[in-house]
Amino acid sequence: MFYDHQQIEKKWQKYWEENQTYKTSNNTDKPKFYVLDMFPYPSGAGLHVGHPLGYIASDIYARYKRHQGFNVLHPVGYDSFGLPAEQYAIQTGQHPAITTEENINRYEEQLKKIGFSFDWSREVRTSDASYYKWTQWIFIELYHSWYNKSTDKAEPIQTLIQHFEEKGTEGLNANQNDELNFTAEEWKDSSDLDKEDILLNYRLAFRAETTVNWCPALGTVLANDEVKDGKSERGGFPVFQKKMMQWSMRISAYSERLLQGLNTLDWPQPLKDAQEYWIGKSQGAQVQFQVEGHDEIVEVFTTRPDTIFGATFMVLAPENPLVDTITTEAQKAEVDSYIEETSKKTERDRMADVKNVSGAFTGSYAVNPFSGEKMPIYISDYVLMGYGTGAVMAVPAHDERDHRFAKKFNLDIKKVVDTDEDVQEKSFDSKDSVCVNSDFLNGLNYNDAKSKIISEIENKGIGHGTTNYRQRDAIFSRQRYWGEPVPIYYKEGMPYTLPVSALPLELPEVEKYLPTEDGDPPLGNAKVFAWDEANQKVVSVDLIDDNTVFPLELSTMPGWAGSSWYFLRYMDPSNDEVFANKELSDYWGQVDLYIGGSEHATGHLLYSRFWNMFLKDRGYITHDEPFQKLINQGMILGMSAFVYRIDGTNQYVSKNLSENYKTQKIHVDVSLLKGTSDELDTEAFKAWRPDYADAEFILEDGKYITDREVEKMSKSKYNVVNPDDICEEYGADGLRLYEMFLGPLEQSKPWNTQGLSGVYGFLKKFWNLYFNGDTFEVSDEEPTKAEYKVLHTLIKKVVYDIENFSFNTSVSSFMIAVNELQKIKCNKRNILEPLAVIISPYAPHICEELWSLLGNKESVEFEKFPVLNEDYLVEDEIEYPVSVNGKMKFKISLSAQLSAKEVEDLVISDEKMQPILEGKTPKKIIVVHHRIVNIVI
Ligand code: ANZ
Predict the structure, then answer these.
(1) Which pLDDT band, with edges at 50, 70 and 90, does 90 fall under?
(2) What is the pLDDT of residues 461-481, one digit of tens each?
(3) Is the Cβ atom of 301 under 6 angstroms away from ligand 1?
(4) pLDDT tens per residue across span 820-834
(5) Residue 667 belongs to what H/E stretch?
(6) C-beta 289 within 6 A of ligand 1
(7) Strand partners for 883
(8) Which of 400, 533, 813, 871 could, after both became Cys, cross-link 428 (CB 3.0–4.6 A)?
């Protein structure tokens, strides 16, 4: 029977949509299971076959879990704010909302063609006002919260105010910007404005002057993870360091919890390692050094206080405020010119440039509190102001950068301990040092030496043990249009949140999407974007009088705001009262399986854990961690095609002749090749671009052969394969099976359209098991043992494979099973019915069709997954090798049902045994059941 995939797939996609087959109910006594994909940014290019890889895997898992009786939440949505739609708006004037809507429609169409079992009714879009209302609400909650280190959680700002009213800052243990000290009286005597200023120092969403990554070409600030090698990740524009007043999120308050939480998660180790590295916990000490002849103290952070005896000089970051006070008159010019020189470098350049040490002497000295020796104080840009205290004690014998600096400036190099292997491993070991023998630490291992010196530092009252994290607070404002407005207005320069009742604060219309002439962000172009405090509404900017009508914040939120909590919104997507009803978020709890790309390791996956922990602290949800198990799917690579253009001409030479010419290798679109071959369709090539209209070709054997290379699949490399084309030709089921068949989910693998005919052939064979010629025909006769064995072998394999996320091997076992059933001409209902259920998570359309042809009225989706019966796998006959005095003599086939004793009797009485025994009685007979018989005579 002809397998008409197009007709079948259309029919079932329509059925699923009309019957809302995959709509998830919240009211059920079934156990829940939450399967989530990282939601896509709907780009203008549409999907290529690399995008659905993870979605197919998660869809198979979601369907499998439904068959197992779980109530599965498997939603989809769009991360729909972002730069590309805005860049397009700048170029063309088209509102980003329109571009976004068009792109989403295209994505939706493409996704629906692949037959995903998404609950489309729960779709969310981060750029919808009904969604970002709650992103703004979370911002307001963060603004009105502080981090209490004593309770180790975020608390409402009222508890902080209460603490100030009762005790001032005494006994306060908070995460803050600056350490403040005041009494309860001083607090009470402060003006309202001063109080607000003080509170801003503690809020989880706060404003502060920060050095930011400023990208003039994009006109915005970028997060660290949006900058790659000093360039913007999107567009590759240069990024500079600039000081600006910015909104920030106090993620650093959560560093330790973000680190500890990793232990509870089933995530790939490289991903955990990346987060651990990003958080960057260092344990050490903060130590104070007296500056000679000054009241000033240099405070350093060191992870190696045990090397303090070898600290021979000090280095401050050029930006350290102390530099000004301690630089001597004689050194001022040198110091100033050095500061000027380094201010041009980005922090990243400063860290990357390890070879060229540079610096300047301040003219002042500090005193080493342990050795009593004088230590010259330098400045150098290898010390960063944003880390630790912005100052180091330099130990050139043990630290490589300090060593390079000492060599350059001819400073003393003293080695402290060199006996303990543990320490040697941690130290850079310089050969040219003088050894100082500190009896104080000799003989101690690394950890003991460290603890001992820290207690000594504490005893001397010159410092204390401390922990530092490399992770910085996250800058939250973007000078962009297409993002969530920040629900803040300014009164006397102080920020105030909008009342929750005024949310959503909608993105205003603007005429231009560029910054204003005054350098304000694009929202500065809006005509109606001011806050009328008295009437509680947004009004025209002309009405701003700073009395009752105030300016609104003009920056918008970063891309990561909306994606940091979307998994919660799916639980209750249309609730207008709360972001998600508590009962529902309790029921759905954590995401049980999250699949997505590894590029989100330190961005999305840290920010969303942070917001989730915050919402948990404030009692809105129950779990600290949002994503229990996570898998990073690998990449699908494309086969790029290239032509060789002869330099300075419009002539193109075929691949195998190209060596004879000086050429340039140019990407051509893979759709310009003939069929699945490497041959270029030269006419299509000429028509592709005006530049190529007059192209001439030097052919080989009458053909132009392109060069091929495996690269990341991407629109920019012209090697994308559109899933729509594959669905058309081989069906969505073919696409799904093939993507899984390509190899292990986590690995990268090249796409090869030719390989699809294999899985398509399998689908046809599978289909035909249910037909006799053109008639659908299954028999109700009881299957044979051999038939059951094929089925149950398959069940066993597939269950194991799905539970271990090994989807490629399941596809091969489907192929084996179908081949075997075809060979033994099996058409029994009791085999073919369960077979359709087993294959349905992978190839849902064909299985729905077969299931309904089998006479079932309901979708195959909720049918119980077939259960393994091991009895069918037991071999009927066992072939026992019989060994006599250690030598194998013959083999004997016996029923597997026999006991060991029965096997023994049958072997001894077998006629082949008689000539071997020669009438003797065996001394010993050992039967290893179902394996071997050993006889000693
Ligand atoms: C003395 C010492 C001896 C150090 C030694 C290291 C090795 P992590 O592990 O990254 O936390 N340091 C401290 N603050 C710094 C800053 N603002 N900029 C650049 N370097 C800074 O590194 C901490 C170590 O880096 C500290 O320990 C300090 O040098 C340096 F054998 O102090 B150490």
Answers:
(1) confident
(2) 999 999 999 999 999 999 999
(3) yes
(4) 999 999 999 999 999
(5) strand 663-668
(6) no
(7) 888, 934
(8) 400
Q: Whose CA is nearest to atom 5 of ligand 1?
A: 399
Known binding-site residues for ATP equal 715
443 pLDDT exceeds 80? no
Ligand 1: does its nearest atom lie under 6 Å from the Cβ of 471? no
pLDDT tens for 831-857 read 999 999 999 999 999 999 999 999 999
- Which protein residue's CA is at the shortest distance from atom 12 of ligand 1? 392
Q: Which residue among 368, 399, 472 has the greatest number of ligand 1 atoms within 8 angstroms of its CB, and so is best to mutate?
A: 399
- Which fold is adopted by the domain 281-469? Isoleucyl-tRNA Synthetase; domain 2 (3.90.740)
Q: Give pLDDT, residue 428.
A: 72
In the chain, CATH 3.90.740.10 sits at 281-469
SS3 110: helix
Alpha helical stretches, state H, 44-155: 52-67, 83-92, 96-113, 129-143
Which atom of ligand 1 is found nearest the CA of 388?
14
Closest residue to atom 20 of ligand 1, CA basis: 383
307: Cβ below 6 Å to ligand 1? yes
**CA distance linking residue 670 with residue 504, whole number of Å:** 46
Q: Maximum distance among all alpha carbons in the chain?
A: 120
Angle between helices 723-741 and 807-823 (to 10 degrees): 90
CATH 3.10.20.590 domain locations along the chain: 875-936
The CATH architecture to which 29-138+559-632 belongs is: 3-Layer(aba) Sandwich (3.40)
In the chain, % of residues over pLDDT 90: 81
**Ligand 1 lined by 852 (C-beta under 6 Å):** no
Does the CB atom of residue 585 touch ligand 1 within 6 A?
no
Answer whether 474 contacts ligand 1 (Cβ < 6 A).
no
Ligand 1, residues 303, 312, 342, 395: which to mutate, most atoms within 8 A of Cβ?
A: 303
Which CATH fold topology does 875-936 show?
Ubiquitin-like (UB roll) (3.10.20)
- All CATH 3.40.50.620 domain ranges of the chain, comma separated, are 29-138+559-632
Q: Which residues are annotated as a binding site?
A: 715
The residue nearest atom 7 of ligand 1, judged by CA position, is: 399
Class of domain 724-872: mainly alpha
CB distance 303 to ligand 1 below 6 Å: yes
pLDDT tens digits, 120-152: 999 999 999 999 999 999 999 999 999 999 999
Q: Where in the chain is the domain with CATH 1.10.730.10?
A: 724-872
The token duo for 917 is 């025994």
User: Is pLDDT at 41 greater than 90 in this prediction?
Assistant: yes
CA dihedral 4, 813, 633, 572 (to 10 degrees): 70
Report the nearest-CA residue for atom 32 of ligand 1. Answer: 302
Amino acid at 528: V
- What predicted TM-score, i.e. pTM, was given to this entire model? 0.87
Burial class (CB in 10 A: 0-12, 13-18, 19+), 263: exposed
Could you give the residue ranges of the DSSP H alpha helices within 150-268?
157-167, 184-189, 192-200, 255-261
In short, whether 398's Cβ falls inside 6 Å of ligand 1 is yes
